[in-house]
Amino acid sequence: MIALFGPTGVGKTAVAIALAERLRARGERPVAVSADALQVYRGLEILTGAATSQERRRLEHRLISFLAVTETFSAGRYAELAHREIDALVAQDARPIVVGGTGLYLRAALADLDLAPPPPAALRQKWTERLEREGPASLHAELSRRAPQAADRLRPTDSQRLVRALELAELDALPAHGTDSQLWTTETRHPTRLIGLTMQRVALRARIDARVEAMVAAGAEDEVRAADAAGASPTARSALGFAELLAGDAEAMKRRTRQYARRQLTWMRKLPHVALVDVTDRGADDVAVELEKIIDRDDRDRLGQRGDA
């Protein structure tokens, strides 16, 4: 398996497609499996940067645009779906390419999660209603009183994780190290090459700003307003730019996206055994050539280990 991770705006989809075309030319069957918490939503494709229909014709994508915006979603549910898709592809001798920018979902796709059970519906409703009534800052203050260490790890604007942390705190099930238990592990379910795409900060900032402007021009604000009118779930509303575009503030969306990208890069660089590939000023085809060499080296090493055994 190949796992392709990187910050928003770095060009993961284009690289995955270019790599898939090289793998297909030598007789493989590559299939992308999305590891993104928000690309699951149907009707938010522009906002979340999901692969377009044209891109999907070049590379089949699984686990995108299948969920109504009114539904909630979780890493646990995603893990079940991702494992089913990946296991079926491996059994068919296909080459899964897991593509994403959500750390917890990447781990959920590649390994087994140890997650707390879902909360009772009444408890979820309690904290969701309080979020809507008082806002995330009030929930962050409440979490600070109940579990200061957990509150220190969460931004006061991170509505979805604040709700989850307060649910767990009330159930006395909050992990000592935060809400995202076991965010990473080297024990993957299938042999996996983890590749992290990086980009110089100035270049990435420019890419993000241009990406947001392109999203707005393509109708992302209309998507958000339609989802809001349909009664979008708290999970769907946590998408980058949802609240900002609902308020008509594209500049705020740029700032929030840049902040998120910095956190993604920081997390990615700490991952064990990740092959970091700088894509600054490089085309997707050029990057794909380098990735193919990394994959071939891994495959040779794996075959050599089997021979030694």
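the 2nd protein, sequnce then structure:
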Amino acid sequence: MSTASKIKPPFSLDGELAVITGGGSGLGLAIAQCFIAAGAHVVLVGRNEGKLRAAASQLGSAASYETADVTQLHLLKDLVERISAKHGAVSILVNNAGNHLKKPALETSDPEFANVVNTHVHAAFALSRHVAAGMVERRHGSILFTASMATMMGIPQVVAYSAAKAAHGGLVRALATEWSAYGVRVNAVAPGWIETDMNRGIFAADPERKRKILSRTPMQKFGSAEDIGWAAVYLCSPAAAFVTGAILPVDGGASIGF
């Protein structure tokens, strides 16, 4: 038998239980699809039960869902315990739930700013803390944040979102330094501009914005949701066993383009 044939498939998520917040649509759903293809069981978490039920049905028997509002911080410990009791120990967490506000900074109110930060930062940290307790005890786990181009560059009229996504960078690095010695890796994927139904509508109404984005993207195209899903599989798989504290841009080069 050759040495290569003895190596476990490096991108396999076989036996892993992945919790994905905001998993009922968009990038969360694409990540779920790719995780299942790699062998994981996924639990989708979100507020809209109808959307979650439809997504889990589409994904098949390897998917389940739990309805929860992740901004209700006092309920997150119960959420983790409920998922563990039904499905087993959580070994992957994807902090993907988020909201957005496009507004000039001078017109952004304190409650609007706090609403975005609460969802992206407070909720993601609280859920990570509850999940990581079991991961640290078992010496096995992977936590993934969905970062953004706003983590790495200034984007006008999204000050609250930019502040929240910049905070993700700090969370990834700080948590990785604390938990990696216990077998818990913490990373982020930073999507560039992805072709979605929502973005297609935005670009149709604002062709100049589309032109500007493509002009500064070296690959001269938009990404697909699956591009983010497969990058997430890599970061949560044995192939990335020595990768922690990293923010991986999946952006066609937009973050380094001119």
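The two ends are 50 Å apart (CA to CA). The chain has one domain: 14-196+225-246.
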